[in-house]
């Protein structure tokens, strides 16, 4: 993750002198163009070369794959847009909430209470990090440390065993398909516009945007900049909670090594979506599109029998490419 | 003169998207001359010097240095061709010594530099910039800003720079420091180097430049020898129209006192200060950097809360501990660095204008687009910002418009007191007059305005009352009509302690 | 960052680092009071379920034998484990035997050699020793991944023969992550033993049900008309595959036969007939038998060349007496998919639930 840190510093250093607002618009356009062209090329290529690619079933698979990463990426976009780069504890918080949900269900607290308690806990898990960051701590380092804490706690809660929920009450949350679309995807499709709406149309969202755009100006304007960061990470926490619940519900069990590589997937979605790391620009929709594009690409590669090493290489290269392109856009005026 | 030209730029054109920054501009520079570059923000002068410094690429045109065609694709190539660019953002590395800073990046083929060899190497350049007296081994970061600037110039001279571009070199300096920089500039010109001097300060042009090239709307005029100009002509050239009056009428009568400072001590002040601010008044706090003028504003604004005495607003003692608290008291504050904390460069004007007054455009937690448009249109109209620009990002505006937005956003909270630091820093002449007019209009509508400025002309022209500051203390408070420019200058630079009428 | 307070930020960074460092300090177990001796175990971290069970078994057996046991977990990489070995030896503690579970098998050979120079028995566990390192270890104790997969393959072939609804032909293999040696060992052994079956695709997924689901959900739609069987390297992976099959309208156990490997705690799939059965690979017993092997090597001193399979007694664990072999494999019995099968199952005195509770 060191490299991320450096990239972030570079991007910020590049912008510290003269702020060029042209970049914002150009960047968003570039991201949209890149994603659209990329998606069209990929779909055309996939349709031509891979027989089962352009089918309804496969479309559902791609959407389903994008959903959990996408939900967390929506939350992460709030953190990035509020000017706090990334929270590298998303994976760990999702694991912990899965274990807590599993534990509550096993202890027969009932579905409603377990859901509520888990989501509240997830929000608190985010809020605590947001509060620490609000004190001026570096977001990357803080969340890295919290990540270790959450993972350790998940290990303790689960006793390093598979927590079996012992009931089917939650199963529909993870496996049902109302109207043929998986619940996770319903949540994703519903939350994406909601996240956009909150950011663009509510006062809280405005404070968050302005704080990300210019923390000093926001403070000088009397906005609650500490609250903005807090809200961003808290919402991410709740998104992690949803991911955790979905995972635990899907198989009726929770265990401390779920969500391998979720942090990277989410950060990749943000970067490929073209959200500016210095904050104050971009939209959760970009994060959602980033997640969907990566899912599409992964699916295409999987169907063409590429090994996991190759898939990882290609996605990594894509993220690097996206980062470089946006960085160059930032430098050119 | 023709043969003496060290630099010739012909037909330089540059476009940014749909915006044409330079329409085929010609520019020449003679050996050993100081050429002032004047123009409103956005007139094209910055673009031209950036092209010359290799920071931007021209879309068309040619550049000759000493009669040779050159391609300047990067700052390194520019420096190689003898062009050096000194901006306000210095590249001095604070922990390294002065000598090391000068040699940095020089690529001299020496395996080991001893302290003595370094000293010998840099001494001539230090002498050249008037820093012969300082120890080359001291950390560059410990020097005052002006001397750091000179070290940077020395560094560029050591790389054999023959064309020096100084971009507003005096913007952040105090008077004494400005003198130092100016004398170095004259000395370098006398040595046969050529200097391009970009500035907003008209006075400097007469003191230092041989010729002046004026830019307007992406075009340049032929250079004019300074001795043939007077300041009115210069302004006329700049604006393309005669500026009848830079400053609006003063207030005819003042209302009751609104803000009363009594024996206030605060960070940045060495002596307690007492002051009154009346309804409808514009109070100018005159002083150089570090004089304490800004400290007063910051204490009232809650940025650096005061620690002794009392501040009363309409008879009630106030003690804002933060900007938020001051805002609740209807006190608005604009710092001198609007890019840092005055505007949201990457957000549009709707959002910037309404940022302090979010409650006014919110209904039940949701933003009302109608109210947002209404409020920001109102504020934009008041400050004469074109409504069609409300959709653009604040950072895209010229310095003058940015300042209008930075000021204008505060009207949304209907403030009783408006505190402004350096109201027109980095603002071109045309927009300056507008800002003065708007501040006056606000005052005449019953607002109290208190501003701090290191520009004496501005204080004299705009304020109803003037408080002069020198080294952390209040020198005196006078009616603006009652003070001559020379007196003001003396107050803020070297006040005579024994003179009657001085504050204790 | 746009933070105004640089030093505050630096301080907070330091605090964050300190917190991170504290969380990463491996927790080493302190030895108890006077006893017959001390075994020291080097292994990857017990935050993994399998390894946690392994530790429980190892501790239980050490207590039973009256030995102290010190388990040193490395949480990051082989370099960390190497330095742990150095430190442990440098401490001068009197140790009666080492148990070695390298983080990266090949890269750990240097440390293995260092351990072998101490002169006390070194028992290799879980990871199959690399050829050429024979001089550096005394005995291997643990699972046999080849056997594990072979058992699964035979069970599948048998189930295919008995099934009235499926004619086994083409199928998928879903494996552990690429590069994990147990995974490639199992795949090789499975393919060798699965006579008459055609592999359409093999894909690495991971260890968890989620990962199995993620991979299977994407491959299955393309092949759903032709798949008749799926082999996954563990029952956890199988759980995800079964869900993906069902989502594609296939009935595991009826249209497609699914076989896993290592059992796990959730018996739902088994009892619903969606898995044809389960292989018992008990981490608890692997830890247990590693300690027993170390004990026997200390007591007996003699090591017999060749390999042995510890007897799959139902109620009696293997005896603590007698010599050890170079390879001491724990049994890998098969269990069917009915409640009666599960209830009837016993190995060394433990039931299915006790051995597969992770």
What is this structure, in a nutshell?
Helix content of chain A is 77%, strand content 1%. Chain A is an all-alpha fold and 333 residues long.
Write structural notes for this entry.
The complex is a heterotrimer of chains A (333), B (504) and C (358). With 333 residues, chain A is an all-alpha fold. Chain A has 14 helices and two strands; from the N terminus they run ααααααβαααααβααα. Helices cover 77% and strands 1% of the residues of chain A. A two-stranded antiparallel sheet of chain A has the order 1-2. In chain A, α13 runs antiparallel to α14. The model of chain B is unreliable at 498-504 (pLDDT under 50). Chain B is α/β, with parallel strands linked by helices. In chain B, a hairpin with a 2-residue loop joins β22 (465-470) and β23 (473-479). In chain B, the strands form five sheets. In chain B, strands 3, 6, 7, 8, 9, 10 and 11 form a seven-stranded mixed β-sheet that branches. A six-stranded mixed β-sheet of chain B has the order 17-20-21-14-22-23, with helices on both faces. Chain C is α/β, with parallel strands linked by helices. Chain C contains twelve helices and 15 strands. In chain C, α8 links the parallel β8 (229-232) and β9 (257-259). Chain C is elongated, with a radius of gyration of 23 Å. The interface between A and B is medium-sized, with 30 and 33 residues.
Which second-level CATH architecture of chain A applies?
Orthogonal Bundle
Instruction: Let me know the average pLDDT of chain B.
Output: 85
Helix share bin of chain B: 25-40%
What's the CATH topology name of the largest domain in chain B? Answer: Rossmann fold
β-strand amount of chain B:
15-25%
SSE topology string of chain A = HHHHHHEHHHHHEHHH
Whole-angstrom Rg of chain A: 20 Å
Broad CATH class of chain A: Mainly Alpha
Structural class, from helix and strand content of chain B? Answer: alpha/beta
Our Rg estimate of chain B from Cα atoms comes to 25 Å
Oligomer: heterotrimer
CATH evolutionary superfamily of the largest domain in chain B: P-loop containing nucleotide triphosphate hydrolases
Give the largest interface pair and sizes: A-C, 55 and 53 residues
Strand order of the largest sheet of chain A: 1-2
Main attributes of the structure:
heterotrimer; B: 504 residues; alpha/beta; Rossmann fold; 3 domains; seven-stranded mixed β-sheet; six-stranded mixed β-sheet; 17 helices; globular; disordered C terminus; C: 358 residues; seven-stranded parallel β-sheet; four-stranded parallel β-sheet; 15 strands; disordered N terminus
